[in-house]
Design brief:
There is one protein chain. The protein is of the alpha/beta class and about 200 residues long. It has a single domain (about 5-190), classed as Spore Coat Polysaccharide Biosynthesis Protein SpsA, Chain A, CATH 3.90.550. About 30% of the residues lie in helices and about 25% in strands. Strand 2 (about 25) and strand 3 (about 30) form a beta hairpin. One of its GO terms (cellular component) is cytoplasm.
Length: about 200
């Protein structure tokens, strides 16, 4: 069974620890956001960028604002799901330069019957590299209205399929797919390695 998936990139964060927009950091000849969008296009029917303000101009990408501006990443997921035309949606942060589009296909194979399909690394969920079904919208809205912003706060109310890092590594090999850039030190470490 083939599941159509929309890719949703959350690029509306304040990047307070970096003091500048992480999405626009250079990754070789392109920005980090461009690199992620290119990877998503390998497995997704459409790519949506959720931004605090419209500062991105990407070919064939829908750029939308947050609906809950102070909702954090959970608010970004909500906005992306509202704009999407597919049942399943792969939501991710804009600061994960080692992301591979093949991960979307691996999770999509495990999607039928579940509302969330999320990688689990060393016992911890990776909620910003996960599939979310449209049916999550009402739960997300309730959680946001209750003042919660933690993504995993929605999980107890949904059918969640956790996919271990070992299962993913069987298909993609061992790599730092889950690496994210939060600080200048993270960025310097990443720049010191190969793109």
């Amino acid at each position: 069974m083939t599941v159509q998936v929309t890719g949703i990139v959350l690029a509306g964060g304040k990047s307070t620890r970096m003091n500048f927009n992480k999405a626009l950091l250079p990754c070789g000849p392109v920005t980090m956001l461009e690199k992620i969008v290119d990877e998503l296009r390998k497995s997704c029917t459409q790519v949506i960028i959720v931004a605090g303000k419209n500062e991105y101009d990407f070919r064939d990408c829908l750029v939308i604002p947050d609906i809950y501006p102070d909702g954090g990443p959970l608010g970004g997921i909500y906005a992306g799901l509202r704009a999407s035309r597919t049942e399943y949606n792969f939501c991710m942060a804009c600061d994960m330069p080692r992301f591979k589009g093949e991960l979307v296909k691996i999770l999509a194979l495990r999607a039928p019957g579940y509302q969330v399909v999320v990688p689990q690394v060393r016992g911890c969920y990776e909620p910003l590299l996960a599939l979310y079904h449209q049916s999550c919208l009402s739960v997300i809205e309730e959680v946001l209205k209750a003042g919660q912003r933690k993504i995993t706060a929605i999980y107890p109310y949904l059918k969640v399929n956790a996919v271990t890092h070992e299962e993913i590594a069987e298909k993609l090999g061992e790599s730092e797919y889950f690496l994210n850039i939060n600080t200048p030190e993270d960025w310097e470490s990443y720049r010191g390695s190969s793109f």
